[in-house]
Amino acid sequence: MNTIQMLTAMPVEYNIKPQSKPWINWSLIAINILIFLTYAPNDSSMHYVLDNFAMIANEVSHGEKLYTLLTATFLHGGPIHLAGNMYFLFVVGDNIEDVLGHKKYLILYLLCGLGASLISMVAHIGSAIPALGASGAIAGLFGIRGFNREVQHSRLQPDITC
């Protein structure tokens, strides 16, 4: 365990390098940051984005704004929310992309985000509170890392040679 991981209790990846460039993962991180920068500096922009692109369970459960099941996955409520999600995406995403390939990884990420939005909608039916963030998609990636045999027994296992 390195010092940063010990002091922060945050996972730190330092010895598992992907064999291919994780350009989908890097693109997802960049897209999330760019989208955030387009609306975060201005309160009216923030309200517009939340009203039109965050998932509101009450609307989606009535068949309205179904697109928000996906768009909410690319929105964040503040810089700490964004930084935390992008940190974990950076830690886990590159290795999963390396094992699954670029196309499968992108599809998996989007499906995890959609699935998380659907679960959130069902859990909060009737709620008018906007739901947003990449946490569900990233949690899905962690789940794949833990339960998918192809991923679990691949290059994701740390190299413990001295």
- Quaternary state, please? single chain
First CA to last CA: what distance?
14 Å
Q: What is the C-alpha radius of gyration, as a whole number of Å?
A: 17 Å
Sheet with the most strands?
Answer: 2 strands, antiparallel
Reading the helices and strands in chain order gives: HHHEHHHHEHH
Q: Would you spell out the secondary-structure blueprint of this structure?
A:
Blueprint: H1 3-8, H2 23-39, H3 43-53, E1 55-56, H4 57-60, H5 68-71, H6 79-100, H7 102-123, E2 130-131, H8 135-147, H9 149-152
Antiparallel strand pairs: 1-2
Structural summary, described in words:
The protein has 162 residues and is mainly α. The chain is built from nine helices and two strands; from the N terminus they run αααβααααβαα. It has helices spanning 3-8, 23-39, 43-53, 57-60, 68-71, 79-100, 102-123, 135-147, 149-152; strands spanning 55-56, 130-131. The chain has a two-stranded antiparallel sheet with strand order 1-2. α7 crosses α8 (135-147). The chain is globular, with a radius of gyration of 17 Å. The relative contact order is 0.17.
Summarize the structure.
The protein is an all-alpha fold. It is built from nine helices and two strands, in the order H-H-H-E-H-H-H-H-E-H-H. A two-stranded antiparallel ribbon has the order 1-2.
Offer a few descriptive terms.
disordered C terminus, two-stranded antiparallel sheet, globular, 162 residues, mainly alpha, 2 strands
